Target: Thiol:disulfide interchange protein
Amino acid sequence: MLLTGSAEAPIGAQVQVALQKRLPKTKVDAIDCSKVDGLCEVVAGANLFYVDKSARYLVIGRVYDMETRQDLTAAKLLALNPDMLVGGAAKANATPDAPEAGAARAGARVTTQPAVARTLDVTRLSSKGAIAWGSGTQTVTVFSDFHCGYCRALSQALETMNVRVIERPISVLGSREIANQVLCARDRHAAVRAAYAQNPVPAGPKCDTSGLDENEAFAKAHGINGTPVIVRSDGAVIEGFRPKAQLVEWLKGAKS
Model:
């Protein structure tokens, strides 16, 4: 087992002992107590979770650095498996590596297995929460968060493609205020670019932002708790960032 940082090794060892008592069936591969004060990052097989230094409290979810605007959880998941760029919230799945009720059933998981095919009917959504940009013969709808680094990377890829993008922001990482500003901007495309670049969004007139509430309700109803989620014109869905080459091939499969 890897204990990151020499100064943290004694603390990590204590956490390891405590975890062995509380989660005896879980094989812990690495513990890092140096990133977030009061929390230790634990890697157990394909699972990623957090505990306090007494290992009494276990935390499932994302750690987001508000100062650097970095999703620390997503960065770690990508480091664990560079072949799978995971977007949005970490997946909650049970795995054989960590069968404990709690850590295993709710731990963040990275997998290279293909996702179960699903479709979404976004035609039921009104245009009030849609931010349209780009032009092309094909349209994709993207559920995004302006604080999400993978959404930014996806946006940059889509900028280079011949597609029309319907961006539907949802606030996974506390970005609702920015989404309001982008929706009300006079030049929405420029506002999208500014938001992802973490630059100030040019002020626009007050506008009706209830469409963003509609986006949020739709996402909740359909189990979208991470970003980005990309929906093709025929309703086919992929979750997480994909590089341009994969997006081009995926779009070729759209049913007319």
The chain is about 30% helix and 20% strand. The mean pLDDT is 82.
